[in-house]
TrEMBL record:
SUPFAM superfamilies, sorted: FAD/NAD(P)-binding domain (SSF51905), Succinate dehydrogenase/fumarate reductase flavoprotein, catalytic domain (SSF56425)
Protein name: FAD-dependent tricarballylate dehydrogenase TcuA
Pfam families: FAD_binding_2
Source lineage: Bacteria, Pseudomonadati, Pseudomonadota, Gammaproteobacteria, Pseudomonadales
Domain of life: Bacteria
Keywords: FAD, Flavoprotein, Oxidoreductase
Cofactor list: FAD
Length: 484
């Protein structure tokens, strides 16, 4: 019998599999996706938010625990478990040595990735390179890996994991039979339900305009995160946490594909101009805070607008100050012409931009600080980086909500254990997006999802190995056990 069964194939699952195997346990990892699409949402990531008290190779200056915690507290509005959040923060300070030993390489913050040189360690080659490095290491260590293996249900009796069931499926033209896989322990790391269109529609419902907002959502990440195991565990009485409408949701290019658009579909010029809805009206402060702390609120903001669409508008002055998007913007030499090309009501759009221009109080523009360029006399205000849009050509980018991962998940504690009616399971653990809602009640700050997945993946793998009868053998395992 397998000691540790890991269900999932992204960062958290791989961290769990590696830690369990390092402790001596036999490990089987089940990835729902084909090999070419392995890695879940992690393949679309690019960095890890890291606490550090002094400069560390690719990280400059310092990013101490309290500042990390305050950043997280601000974006979540207090909807976070402080104990678990601080566990993640502290774990982020000492995981990179272990990651390097498993083949992950780091590089300095990318040019155009604003304000992250101090807070985020970037993966050389991005998330796909990280995922590939972990898979190579897992294979070398003897982790058994099976692709095209979506788990349809799990057997749980009295809170104890018994077995996982894989249904019949077709792979490369071959019909594979259903399977039942027993294991001494299990780690659930199969992601949220963002690619389950029906569940998103159910969660978001119908708005006051008679629209079903979720029908217009795009999915930035993997098409394989459909929430089957999350709903399965909920049906078996597992304790849950989180609001099903809360998610890491970004305003992305409306021309992006339905699935797997990734980071390159993000529009990063919001703070350098204005954003209007399809009625040609502004609806939120574009300069509220630094972009890495606010980019993830814009998906939800756009989701609340008519038709779930918005438009990011800049002029020539903004060029070169943000990461260029994958699709070119619509370009025009006049505001009227831009409105016509974007399908916006010309008079309203022009009046909106002109009112904004008149309200701008330009001081010393500095996009690397919370500068004194702001508006007066209009609502919503723009509190920083407010400069008139008066230098043609003008550029417009259509926006739609892009869901990265959902926050409804399984409630856990510092041991990464799944709970049933408040009682911890003796052998069922959870990591990654399936439990991120314990730390992220709402909001997001760049790189923290990978921090959560890495911390809890390592803890879950260590605990699963211990539950299977293995003691820790490495400093990393010992550290995580002590932390937990």
């Amino acid at each position: 019998m397998i000691d540790v069964l890991v269900i999932g194939g992204g960062n958290a699952a791989l961290c769990a599999a590696l830690m369990a195997r390092e402790a001596g346990a036999s490990v089987l990892l089940l990835e729902a996706a084909p090999r070419a699409w392995r890695g879940g949402n992690s393949q679309h990531t690019r960095n890890l938010r890291c606490m550090h008290d002094a400069p560390q190779d690719v990280l400059v200056d310092a990013y101490p625990e309290e500042e990390f915690w305050q950043d997280l507290l601000k974006v979540t509005g207090g909807l976070t478990n402080e104990k678990l959040a601080r566990l993640v923060i502290r774990a982020s300070s000492n995981c990179r040595g272990w990651m390097r030993r498993h083949g992950v390489h780091f590089q300095p913050s990318l040019s155009g990735a604003l304000h992250t040189a101090r807070t985020n360690a970037f993966f050389m080659g991005g998330g796909k390179a990280l995922v590939n490095a972990y898979y190579r290491s897992a294979e070398k260590l003897g982790v058994e890996i099976r692709y095209d293996s979506p788990v349809a249900r799990v057997e749980v009796k009295g809170g104890r994991f018994i077995a996982a069931h894989i249904g019949e499926r077709e792979v490369d033209g071959r019909r594979l039979p259903a399977e039942r896989l027993e294991a001494r322990t299990c780690v659930l790391a199969a992601g949220g339900f963002e690619s389950n269109r029906e569940w998103l529609r159910e969660a978001w419902g119908q708005n006051e305009r008679g629209e079903w907002p979720a029908e217009n959502f795009l999915v930035r990440g993997t098409r394989f995160n459909n929430g089957v195991l999350l709903r399965e565990l909920m049906g078996q009485g597992a304790d849950t946490i989180g609001d099903p409408t809360q998610a890491h949701m970004v305003a992305i290019d409306a021309r992006a594909p339905l699935y797997d658009g990734g980071i390159c579909t993000r529009i990063d010029c919001v703070s350098l101009g204005v954003v209007v809805n399809r009625n040609g009206e502004r609806f939120y402060d574009e300069g509220e805070d630094f972009w890495p702390k606010r980019y993830a609120i814009w998906g939800r903001l756009v989701a609340q607008q008519p038709g779930q669409v918005g438009f990011s508008i800049i002029d020539q002055k903004a060029l070169g100050r943000f990461m260029p998007p994958v699709f070119p913007g619509t370009t025009a030499n006049t505001l009227d012409e831009l409105a016509r090309q974007l399908g916006l009501p010309e008079a309203t759009f022009v009046a909106t931009v002109e009112a904004y221009n008149r309200a701008c109080r330009v001081g010393t523009f500095d996009h690397t600080s919370l500068d004194d360029c702001h508006t007066e006399g209009i609502q919503p205000a723009k509190t920083h980086w407010a400069r008139p849009l008066d230098s043609p050509p003008y550029y417009g980018y259509p926006l739609r909500p892009g869901v990265t991962f959902t926050y409804l998940g399984l409630r856990t504690d510092e041991t990464a254990t799944v709970h049933f009616d408040g009682k911890p399971s003796p052998n069922l653990f959870v990591a990654g997006e399936m439990m991120a809602g314990n730390v992220l009640g709402k909001g997001y700050t760049a790189g923290v999802g990978m921090s959560i997945g890495t911390a809890f993946g390592r803890i879950a793998g260590t605990r699963a190995a211990m539950a299977a009868g293995y003691r820790t053998t490495s400093r990393e395992n010992e550290h995580d056990c002590a932390t937990a």
